[in-house]
Write a structure and sequence with these properties.
Layout: H1 2-18, H2 28-46, H3 52-73, H4 76-82, E1 87-91, E2 94-95, H5 97-102, H6 107-116, E3 125-130, E4 136-140, H7 156-169
Antiparallel strand pairs: 1-2, 1-3, 3-4
Length: 174
């Protein structure tokens, strides 16, 4: 049971450090890494040689830990310690390099997400966000964006302020 707790906590810390993107299988090599995580974790949890009882105890402990941390996540103060925040990757067609580096996202991931959304150009993207689940959300250019839905997104406040300032500085016709 102690090994299960240790592996669970280590996994949570690693996901926090490396980002939720580590859990979303993008390529074959990503899938191999996820399978290896499971194999290594299973070996540590079940012991050597693994027994049915050790497996049942390990799985039960993992489920209890997940239920416990799921409940703790509901409290706003705890969520920021457990989950990574959503991260603004693009705004108004502009890629935010600092944020894609923070989120461990590549330019290829950005291009892939744009294509998956059925878009043909980066300028067709109003907002692109890496969600805490590791999925990428896209709001198309021309769609109205309520700033409230971006309130918890890392980098959104600065992007919205810069956009507002740019709009104020545009010369008006008259």
């Amino acid at each position: 049971m102690a090994a299960t707790l240790g592996i669970y906590l280590a996994f949570m810390v690693l996901v926090k450090i490396f980002g939720s993107r580590v859990l979303t299988s993008v390529t074959a090599s990503d899938a191999v890494i996820i399978i290896m995580f499971g194999a290594v974790s299973g070996r540590v949890i079940a012991g050597n040689p693994p027994t049915l009882a050790a497996g049942i105890i390990g799985l039960t402990t993992l489920m209890v830990l997940e239920a416990t941390f799921g409940t703790v996540r509901r409290f706003i103060g705890w969520s920021r310690f457990i989950d990574r925040p959503p991260v603004l990757l693009m705004f108004a067609g502009e890629v935010f390099e600092k944020n894609i580096n923070y989120a461990h996202i590549s330019r290829n991931d950005i291009s892939s997400a744009v294509r998956k959304a059925g878009l043909g150009r980066l300028s067709d993207v109003q907002v692109m966000i890496l969600e805490p689940t590791g999925q990428i959300s896209i709001i198309r250019a021309g769609q109205p964006v309520d700033p409230k839905i971006l309130s918890d997104v890392r980098g959104a406040k600065e992007a919205l302020e810069a956009r507002k300032q740019a709009l104020e500085e545009e010369p008006t016709e008259g």
